[in-house]
Amino acid sequence: MDYTISIGSNEQRRENMELARRRLTELFSGIRFSEEEETVPLFFHRPNLFSNQVACFASDNPVEEVTACLKAIEREAGRKPEEKEQEIVRLDIDLLSCDGTVYKPKDLKRDYILRGLKQLL
């Protein structure tokens, strides 16, 4: 199955993005990453910039298992549910699509994701 994910952080961005890339590379051989891009927050009032990146990989693992791996990496970076209200995103890794099934249609329309996808094609 072919997976597309997005990775983002607005807190300790460099360290958390590196952690995400390292863990994802360990889990999914052959993963490819777009260039990391700095963006302004879309919905937050907190002024911290985001680092964002898109990645693609193939895996025989089912969607539920891949999603569980992504959420485990977020927790490893220290992400806590209560921080969402404070607009702190240590690490956010979202499944955008798998084999043509789109899980985050609004995200797939964002400029930085479109640019990342173009780099990966």
Give the tags:
3 helices, transferase, 6 strands, 32% helix, EC 2.7.6.3, Hppk_sf, Alpha-Beta Plaits, six-stranded antiparallel β-sheet, alpha+beta, 121 residues, kinase, 2-amino-4-hydroxy-6-hydroxymethyldihydropteridine diphosphokinase activity
Descriptive account of the structure:
By secondary structure, this protein is an alpha+beta fold. It has one domain: 7,8-Dihydro-6-hydroxymethylpterin-pyrophosphokinase HPPK (Alpha-Beta Plaits, 2-Layer Sandwich), CATH 3.30.70. Helix content is 32%, strand content 26%. The chain has 3 helices and 6 strands. Strands 1, 2, 3, 4, 5 and 6 form a 6-stranded antiparallel sheet that branches. The longest helix is centred in the N-terminal third of the chain and has 15 residues. The protein is globular. The relative contact order is 0.26. The model has no long low-confidence stretch (mean pLDDT 94).
